[in-house]
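Internal ticket - ligand job 497, glyceraldehyde-3-phosphate:
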Amino acid sequence: MVVPEGEEEPEYLTTFVLEKDGVKKEFTTEDYPEDTAWHFVESRTVLVKEGYVPPVHDFSIMTWPDGEDITEQVLSDKGYTFLLISPYLEFADDSNIDRINELYDYCGEHGYAFYCLTASGDDVIGRWQDLTGADYPFGITDEITLKTIVRSNPGLVLLKEGTVYNKWSCNNLPKEEDLNVPLEDGELGRLQSASRMMTTLRVVLWFLVPLFVLVFADRIWVGSKMYRRMKHKNRIINLLKRKEMRKKIVAGNWKMNLNLQEGVALATELNAALAADKPNCDVVICTPFIHLASVAAVLDAQTIGLGAENCADKEKGAYTGEVSAEMVKSTGAQYVILGHSERRAYYGETAEILKEKVNLALANGLKVIFCIGEVLEEREADKQNEVVKAQLAGSLFDLTAEQFSNIILAYEPVWAIGTGKTATAEQAEEMHAFIRTTIAEKFGVEAAENVSILYGGSCKPSNAKEIFAKPDVDGGLIGGAALKCADFKGIIDAWKA
Ligand SMILES: O=C[C@H](O)COP(=O)(O)O
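stdout (structure tokens):
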């Protein structure tokens, strides 16, 4: 044992109880008998003078059977010493004897000391040797001391210079593979505190680092969620900004209602109402062919645009009852509705026919209000996007971007037309956003941002404001409510704050 400078070495007294001819007697290291007829019974160590408390104390080893005190030799050994600790060999667990013997062989190979320390008597030690084939040397140590060193019986301690480097219970002895390298090069020979550091490091690596990664990932996720929210918010703001730049339109579709006089009267009334209260949006009325020229005459073209509800898919010629795009244009009209669901359903207008009509209308300088929308069964089958996309593609996707700039789209869910059933503002926005995305994919973002998309289907003064407030809704195509000036104006006024 190395005692630091300035410290006093403590003094211990070890007494040994030996027995001869049935008589027990106590001895110390001073008067330990050389007579081998004395048999060891037990030993006790007591502190007689306090001093430096070494890592291992209250400890002495007398060799067995010679009784040589090797305590100092063991504790000051600069090399490794294994101590197999068994206060009572008679009660020791002998199930790992082979491992202990292997360990002793390992010590022999590498020059490490190995002792079995016990407080058991001669007979017991001898029996243990017979039983286990133990070749290792034995030392006698006080049983209490041994019990305080390790609780397991037997237990194993690795010492170096009086410092305990490692301890094992009998069920957790060094494994065979641990003994493949010298103690100097392996984990076994590391000071336990260093091992604890390694353990701590392992905990950090296996537990804290993943925990940190998880926390970090969680923060990133929260951050990205916030970022997505911000992005979404910004997108809405941008959409609303872009919306400001798009044309806001309220268009009326009189359908097959009103005779000429009624139509002219309604147009005149509307013209006066909007002259008195200027609208915040473009206003268009689409009338039957017979009204066009007369209505054109009463409208202030700066305030109210005029459109037809249809035009022929032929340029001109022997098509009895048809009205060409060129004829529509000649009345003073600037717009034409094409692809209305009623034309598709009742007059068999296919995507191909509509494509012809669109081309002719554009060629004659008309702006086209092109209608698209799904029927109830299609919505119930969740096919609305597919249907609308096909309608767009079937009639408009051959246009150039420049031609497309003269198209106004009108989404009219057929199940909401004239039924009093309105799509919710959210349903409308969802579809309008989808339409805009579809246009962006085909004609580019700029075209998509510029195209006005109107909502049609039971739009009234009472619901127009909510629907028009949606970022992708740019106005309405109004049927029934366009036949009364007050209702139509009420919808137009939805664009006012
Ligand atoms: O063209 C207009 C639409 O078909 C909407 O008609 P509605 O407002 O009577 O439902």
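Auto-summary: The pocket of glyceraldehyde-3-phosphate is lined by residues 253, 412, 417-418, 456-459, 477-481 (CB under 6 Å). The chain is about 40% helix and 20% strand.
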